[in-house]
Each structure stands twice: as C-alpha cells, then as structure tokens.
# Entry
Amino acid sequence: MLDPRDLYELHDSTGSETSSETGTGPADPTSAGPVLLHVFTGFIDAGQAGSLARDHLLATLEHRPLATFDVDRLLDYRSRRPPMVFVENHWESYEDPHLVLHEVTDAAGVRFLLLEGAEPDILWERFVDAVRGLVESFGVRLTIGVHGIPMGVPHTRPTSVTAHATRAELVAGRDPWVGTVQVPGAMTNLLEYRLGRSGLDAMGFAVHVPHYLAQSDYPDAAAALLENVAAATELTLPTGLLRASAEATRAELDEQVAGSAEVEAVVHALEQQYDAYVAARGGDAPGDEQGLLAGRGGFPTADELGAELERFLAEHRGDRPPEG
# Structure
C-alpha cells in the first residue's frame, strides 16, 4: 500500500517545504480545532461561486501555505490542459495547476484551513486518505466543501443553497431542496462521504445559481457561500466587496432584461415557477425529486427558459451563444 503522505509536502512556519512524514498538529492543543474549507476546480462550479469565494478569502485575509500537493501525480493534463499565453513570438505565461492547503486567519483573528486548487483526476482514494491524515494531524473539527450548481432560479429572488452533512445535527433547521438524485461523483462530495464514514464531521454547501448565468461570474453566489460557512462555523468572513460586486452585476442584468419584453417574460415565468415551488415546499413534505429542474403549472421547463435567456444575454454581450 502506497503511503498517502507521499502526495504532499508540509511547510514550516516560514512557508518552506519540510518532510511530510510528520504533521505539525493544531496550533493550540486545548482548542476545539480549526475548520477546514475546501474548494476544488475542474468540475461543476456554476457562476464560479466557489472559485470567487476562494479568491476573495485569499485576497482579503492573511494566509500562509501549510502543505502543497504533487499535482503531477494527481492530474490528467491531456483531459484538462492548463492554459498558456502566446504573445507575438514567444510563450508569455503558463497557468500552473496547484493544490495547496493554507492556514488562514479570519477577520476576528481565528485560524482556519483552506484546501484549494485543481480537483484530482486520479488516485482519488489515496488523496482522500492524505486529506484525512491532514484533518487528524491538524485537529480539524469540521470540514466544509463549497461550490455552485445551476438551477432553475431567477436572479431576482434570494439566493438559496443546498446544505448536506455527515450528521443531521450539522444541518438542523435547513429544509432540503431535493429528495433522491444520482449525480456524477466529485471530490468535494466524496471527501465529505469518506470523512463521515470515518466518524469525522463534514458538510457542504451547494449554492443555487441561475443556470442562464452558470458560465458567468456570479458574486452573489460566492457571498452566499461565505455567509453560510460563517453561520455554520462562527468564523468572521468578509463579504462586503463581494456584495458590492453582486449589486453591480444585478443592476447590469436588470438593465439587459428590461431592454427586451420577450426576455422580461422569460424571467417572469422563472419567478412564477420559483414562487410556486417555494409555496409548495411550505405546504407539502420536502423531497421533490425534480424540484426546480422541472416545469410546473404549464410553464416551460427551467432548462428551456434558462437556455432562452442565456442565449439573449450572450448575444447582448457579444459572446458566442452556447452550443446546443
């Protein structure tokens, strides 16, 4: 059996790499232990919600690397080729893939961990074992994954999230949005599942992004993710800049929609569908297996409405509309 610790190198207090044979453990052995937040790129992240949240944390909070994973062992470069920039007669840059565990200090001085970077393509179980070892070594009390998922919701309604966890107590008071569904596996979900099977607390937040905005930056979704993480952990995470950006994005969207009576009708239909769904959840037992992904009351499906609106917004911005 290969040692999962071979997948990463630990850093000392100065940020220099050290042997991965031993962990440094929690900074304060008497504390309850830090939270570990993980954000992986490469699979579903509608609205770039998780990536925007990650970038915002790293840009606004103090942080230092704790461990760096060997991405050459974990990525399939031919299926996910890192971008390079060519300028006139030379290669200007290469976007190095990375997978790093950071120690971050929140706005109140509380330490937490952030694991971010490219989702592994291979060695999933070995990677999970490596993360589990780091969780135990640093005394992590709760692991949280975040990302965005496309849903049949309008941008004019409050941003909602699907919360899930290894113990019901971790998501107490949160109503489910769907019942039973089968989806392709992703590291953020597998990590939660495996940690839970090991008796460790783990949870996740999937923010609902209007699927006509799934390919665009949607800062409102990133802010919603951080606010939910803060509520679940009592961390003090800044969202002011994200909220300001979200207001600007909302104003731009409203202006574009107002410029077309046809698109206004599409948004209105999505609003009616959303409101009908929310009302039904209030009166019936939760667990609709299609939820906001299916049409209701004679409306077109959310996919049909979203595709029409997405085409309009792409054309308005001068982008190439999505194929299909």
